[in-house]
């Protein structure tokens, strides 16, 4: 008797059924167990022998009851002969006959149909059920995951958008506060002046404490005027003046507006944006000094300190006003060459080319450019082009040298930075430079996949000039980022060169530099990498671009948020209570001057106040 | 301005803008020195490539590829540039598009042929350029 080896035809049937069939194929045990007479059942003739000898051989146990249970599970039924006349089985009294519709002699294939029933069917169905339900669940889960991912993404986008807006608003508010404070100071100043006039007018009629007043001011003692104003007020100053003073006294913007919190928030925001460079300590000191000299750290010193702070805080806004790679919409707006129609710009280019290789973009002074490039060929061509554009060039051979140069205090208007360089790559270099400097840095690279580009922006780069660059592409970049050095722009640079008549070439160039044309002109880019003149640029692309340019005008300005307070300020009525009377004239007047000369003020970033305190001394005694 | 015999290996607009930087069209001092410096640079780079190929230093090979890619692209030497880009990718164990991974063996094998190809392309364009500068 061989051990059971499932026949080929019965591979699908259950082990038990195959063993059973095998058992019956063996003729030696015929007298114990055999097929029924009709071949559609099997009969256990001798129960005891079967249990003892045959079961163990085939089923590894000798338990007849369990064998029967097993049979039942497979839907075998014991054949009963009760209905027959003698109630006896044809196979003898002790015989057990079992039957299954699909268990037949010489029909091995039918064995496949024999399955476990009752618990078996359940069990047999269970796996499919398990499979089905999990699959559905999986689908559901998947869609949920996708949905929440989308949601997360949307939230992230929204968050980024909001944080950009938030920091913009913060700066607006800070700017407004500053304006309000400045206004208040102006008002106080005006009042003081009027009081002076008023007093003088009255002095003219009857001698007032003129001498005392004058000396007090000349000592530069800010505390001094106060007691003198008061006596004057006792002397019936003009009633409108009294009224105005009262109004001013009722609220004091310095006290009411506490910009510290906002500044703190602002700082946090900018830290989060990764480009904050903490205001250089010397600025802080510089700003604080004049104030502390004048008075105890009262409202007055807070003001000047804050103004100093703000200049530093507002300035390095970095990516929040530029193209923020974290802000998904900006990915589409990254100003790097889009394939556009080449016809029109190329004409212009041809003109330019023919006219001169020495293009003068019309700088008010030669821009200082740092060219960071390890490849000598690129460096030479870059320098040559820059030279042709009337720039002054310094070069660094790798990122390390660039960082060192800038760290050593070299000032540039623009940095052109290769990315892959020995010693220190451009991105790291930029990251380091951003810790202390905000000169525009332009990545100059052939790696311009979108993830590369967003990395550049994340690390504080301002733009990307794809390599190999063309002269036009380079010029474009210069004009875009050095717009403040262009001649027609009202300039704050001292020793400004008088505007020169426009050369023809310049006019062509100027046309190109207008923002509307930027996308088109960037396509002047002749890179073999690029699909030249693939298709006319889609209008919406241009619009998007324009939108980006307009929405973030600050991106290219040196100090984008700064001008706003001065332009938008006028409407806010802000009566101020003047705590210490008029003892803050020095900063008052300084503030007033700032108001009158925003452009100048922008220039003197850190220390706008120091030069001013002389003014009151000169002006007031009149 | 066209460079005879180099229509497909030199990108004319790119090369022309360099020629335009020459002060004297007859002398071509700037572009000539630039191009000849590039020849030296390329030769050196190829020697380095061979050395690193022997040492199976894929990373350095990729860097060398990138390095030469930059300057050849700047000059508009399209073919050399393309091969250098491949060298850069293969060195990073990427296929020639730079998007799929390949094994180190595949990379080395591809590098071997591509470096040879880059050399051939370089010597061809060098010949053309030398002729251009001598004949003018």
TrEMBL record, chain A:
UniProt domain Response regulatory: residue ranges: 368-482
UniProt cross-references to PROSITE patterns, sorted A to Z: HSF_DOMAIN, RESPONSE_REGULATORY
Keyword field contains DNA-binding: yes
Keywords of this entry: Coiled coil, DNA-binding, Nucleus, Phosphoprotein, Transcription, Transcription regulation, Two-component regulatory system
UniProt region (Disordered), positions on chain: 508-536, 556-622
Subcellular location: Nucleus
A single BP term in Gene Ontology: regulation of transcription by RNA polymerase II
Gene Ontology CC annotation, any one: nucleus
Pfam families (alphabetical): HSF_DNA-bind, Response_reg
Gene Ontology MF annotations: DNA-binding transcription factor activity; phosphorelay response regulator activity; sequence-specific DNA binding
Xref: Gene3D superfamilies: 3.40.50.2300, Winged helix-like DNA-binding domain superfamily/Winged helix DNA-binding domain (1.10.10.10)
Keyword Nucleus: yes
UniProt xrefs under InterPro entries: CheY-like_superfamily, HSF_DNA-bd, Sig_transdc_resp-reg_receiver, Sig_transdc_resp-reg_Skn7, WH-like_DNA-bd_sf, WH_DNA-bd_sf
Residues found modified as 4-aspartylphosphate: 418
SUPFAM superfamilies: CheY-like, Winged helix' DNA-binding domain
Biased composition (Polar residues): 519-536
Residue ranges crossing the lipid bilayer per the database entry: none
Task of the protein: Transcription factor that is part of a SLN1-YPD1-SKN7 two-component regulatory system, which controls gene expression in response to changes in the osmolarity of the extracellular environment. Under low osmotic conditions, phosphorylated and activated by the phosphorelay intermediate protein YPD1. Also activated in response to oxidative stress, independent on the two-component regulatory system. Regulates heat shock genes in response to oxidative stress and genes involved in cell wall integrity in response to osmotic changes.
Assembly and binders: Homotrimer.
Family: Belongs to the SKN7 family.
Protein name according to UniProt: Transcription factor
Native source species: Pleomassaria siparia CBS 279.74
TrEMBL record, chain B:
SUPFAM superfamilies, sorted: Histidine-containing phosphotransfer domain, HPT domain (SSF47226)
The keyword Metal-binding is assigned to this record: no
Residue span(s) of domain HPt: 27-125
PTM annotation (Phosphohistidine): residues: 66
GO molecular function per UniProt: histidine phosphotransfer kinase activity; protein histidine kinase binding
Highest rank taxon of the organism: Eukaryota
Alphabetized UniProt keyword annotations: Phosphoprotein
Coiled coil: none
Keyword Phosphoprotein applies: yes
Gene Ontology annotations for the cellular component aspect, listed alphabetically: cytoplasm; nucleus
Database matches in SMART domains: HPT
Any one Gene Ontology BP term: phosphorelay signal transduction system
PANTHER family for the chain: PHOSPHORELAY INTERMEDIATE PROTEIN YPD1
Protein known as: Hpt domain-containing protein
